[in-house]
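Thread title: Can someone regenerate the structure for this chain?

I was given the following input by a collaborator and told the matching structure tokens would be attached. They weren't. Posting the sequence so someone can regenerate them.
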Amino acid sequence: MQSQTAGDERAELLAPTAVRPLAVALATVRARPAREDEAASAQEAPRTPPKVIHALAHRALDPPKPAETQTPAPTQTVAATTQTVAAPAAAPEPPSADAAAPVAAAAAPARPEKSAGLSVVANVLDSPVSSAPPSAVKRAPPVNLDLNSSVDWVSLSRAIEEGQGQSLGSGPLALEAAQIVRGKSIAEGAFAEVFRGLLWGQRVAVKQLKTDREGADKESLERELRHETRILAALSHPCILTLIGYTAQPAQIVLEVLDGTVYDLVRKHGTEQCDGGMLGPLIDILSGCAYLHACKPPLLHRDLKPPNVLHDEKLRCKLCDFGTALELKPPPAPQPTEWIGSQLYVAPEVDKGLPYGLPADVFSFGVLAYELYHLKGTGVDFYGDGDLFEGGGLFEGLEVIRAPILKETPELPVRPSACDADPVWELLGECLAFDPGKRPTFAQAAQRMGVVRQAASSTLTTWLGVAKS
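Best answer:
Regenerated them for you:
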């Protein structure tokens, strides 16, 4: 496609439909009169050829995907600022020096690092959390934003500020509260309440942080809101709840709306409708957790439990509530020791105040999976107070699951009747191991459970297009 000379034709070339706002922004940059502080550099450097603008715009919108295994690059100091930012692991190959020099000559200041803190907000269903002071949590630059690119980010950001909207890859989307039509409450806890809502005509879930709870000052609410939205904005996986945006006043997080918790899936729908039965939702959970632990740095959820697993209309399960999630820094940074989570599900090392890492989430999954099999076989779960006649609730769960594991000589709980596959029960036993070093990784657990499901179901084999062995 040949480049056009007119600014409006060039904008049409760059923006068929979906990328039109960015194209308009680029056209605005080209059309904007030079300011006095730009005059000198403009005299020395010729105008950027249209072909370069065309190529750079498409590189900004569709950067190369990073390799599966990367070694983080050292920090790099960006010109015209004293702040350092982490350079992407694999930067795209720049255009030729002759073509890119005029654009690269404009100094691109580093994106200011947002302050962060470990949120102490629990999920909307009353999860107990630590009262320990929040720990600092830093978030790497979004992977789709190449800070080494020769795109003129300064001019582009100015155009965006002049009315073209929020730049792509700039973090969670800030919304105006007036854009949201809020409906009835669908869940409430000690730290937040979730409402049905409409945004731009679409159904959403609106999670509003409570302002009337103890310690809920403006600074702490902003920290909690910033922490959870920054983490969710950086994640992209079909088994993780999707963030749409947030409002600062009031402190709200706007999320995709789902149909219910995994409790509802097992109790109301029955896992027979899932591919592989109970293995379907369990593999969804394992897949989402494996993704979190594969992030750089790895992300500890720290509050895995059935109320934090939701399902959609297609019965796919998704992880939610990242208010207590923590990016695990590599050595020599110390491992966390603060007690955070929910009593039934926390790993023994967390309960004892010892340093913990990724295996702590694996233990929580083991308890979650055991409880779902128990629920399927008995109709009783271990969340809340339970029922006077039917039993269940937290205290029964502590007795059934944790008491055997925490004995002087640890034992496994009694095998649930609904867990009839020996390989699955063996895997759950490893996840519930008292020794963190004996627990599998989420990637290993997902692969092993996937083998069992594939052997029992022809759906995946048919989809793969391979013969069943």
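The CA atoms of residues 69 and 89 lie 10 Å apart.
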